[in-house]
Amino acid sequence: MEDKLILAIETSCDETAAAVIKNGNEIVSNIVASQIESHKRFGGVVPEIASRHHVEQVTLIIEEAMNEANITFSDLAAIAVTAGPGLVGALLIGVNAAKALAFANDLPLIGVHHIAGHIYANRLITELKFPLMALVVSGGHTELVYMKEDGSFEVIGETRDDAVGEAYDKVARTLKLPYPGGPYIDRLADVGSPTINLPRAWLEQDSYDFSFSGLKSAVINTLHNASQKGIELSNEDLAASFQESVIEVLVEKSKRAAIEFEVKQFLLAGGVAANKGLRNKLTKEFEQLGIELVIPPLNLCTDNAAMIGAAAFVKLEKQHFAGYDLNGNPGLDL
Ligand code: KG4
Ligand code: ZN
Question: What are the binding residues for Fe cation?
């Protein structure tokens, strides 16, 4: 079989990324330009600034990915791009770059769902075994996704309010930690003790949905009440208590879903998959269950284009191509 190369582009949030992927599972090149430094002083991603950076960066990053792969456009089988969800102004930059390149080089165009990308990041490290379950945890998403087979996605549970990463970042901001605060909370939690009583949002007994805004508010209220009484709480213990509450719910629901759907594999995906506490607890629990757990390396957990190329390969095989009317869709369904 002839090798099939895909150029993939990702600009849905604050990373401008391009990658060349061979046969859906091999990284030939993978370039990511992070904008974190530009958004840091605002305490979150500023959509207008994100779009401007993408415009400046996108052609350079694509050129770098092509150069590093040492190929020309005639070597490609398709051009793939994240079509949503994400910031609309940010998505549009990638989508328009992909459309222009596909048209100019007479190549098929493939639109990819960002979450499908996060899940398929796992295909870059191992073979996927179906049926599988994926827990997608990032700054914008918290979802349990059931996949009966390649390319089929069923969201069995999702957050009803804040995404996990969003809750981490908001709690971190309350503790006056830099943006994005997830990794800082993770580090504090590692040295603290979960001694502060915080709620767990289990929701209805059989629900796979999540809710984190109540927990986030409980942390803020606990801090506020303590400071009014002149008590100084330990940031480490507060972080450890918050993290324990988050992880307990994520892991319990993941286990229940894996058992009920009799999956062969459980995948962790998204930026929060970098969380040490979550990785450790999932590893321990799935070992006991005897279900294979796959966790991508850190650089494939956070936003990148390699994962978009991996997800696009399934569509290339099925010839599910997009037209030139492809648009950035912030509310795209999986
Ligand atoms: O997937 P991602 O790079 O971007 C989105 O698509 O959202 O995820 C970024 C999120 C941020 O909220 C960040 O705070 C969180 O992932 N994050 C973490 C850790 N590393 C990154 N959250 C908890 N613990 C970590 N170690
Ligand atoms: Zn993401």
Answer: 114, 118, 303
Compute the distance between CA of residue 36 and CA of residue 14 in angstroms, rounded to an integer: 7
32 alpha carbon, closest ligand = 1
pLDDT tens-place values along the chain, 334 residues long: 789 999 999 999 888 999 999 999 999 999 998 878 878 877 778 888 888 988 999 999 999 999 999 999 999 999 999 999 999 999 999 999 999 999 999 999 999 999 999 999 999 999 999 999 999 999 989 999 999 999 999 999 999 999 999 999 999 999 999 988 999 999 999 999 999 999 999 999 899 999 999 999 999 999 999 989 999 899 999 999 999 999 999 999 999 999 999 999 999 999 999 999 999 999 999 999 999 999 999 999 999 999 999 999 999 999 999 999 999 999 999 9
| pTM across the whole model | 0.94
- For ligand 1, atom 10, which residue shows the shortest CA distance? 139
Distance CA 263, CA 254 (A): 11
Residue bearing the CA closest to ligand 1, atom 7: 139
The angle, 0 to 180 degrees and rounded to 10, between the axes of the packed helices 164-174 and 235-260 is 170
Ligand approaching nearest to the C-alpha of 117: 2
Question: Is the predicted ipTM greater than 0.90, yes or no?
Answer: yes
Of 3.30.930.10, 3.40.50.720, 3.30.420.40, 3.40.50.1370, the CATH number of 5-120+301-317 is: 3.30.420.40
Pairing of β 26-34 and β 15-22: antiparallel
CA of 114 to the centre of ligand 2 (A): 6
Ligand 1 centroid vs 247 CA: distance in angstroms? Answer: 14
**Atom of ligand 1 at shortest distance to CA of 14?**
4
Instruction: Kindly tell me the burial class for residue 22, based on how many C-beta atoms sit within 10 Å of its own C-beta (0-12, 13-18, 19 or more).
Output: middle
Taking each helix axis from N to C terminus, what angle separates 164-174 and 182-191, rounded to the nearest 10 degrees?
Answer: 70
Structural domain boundaries of the chain?
Answer: 5-120+301-317, 129-295
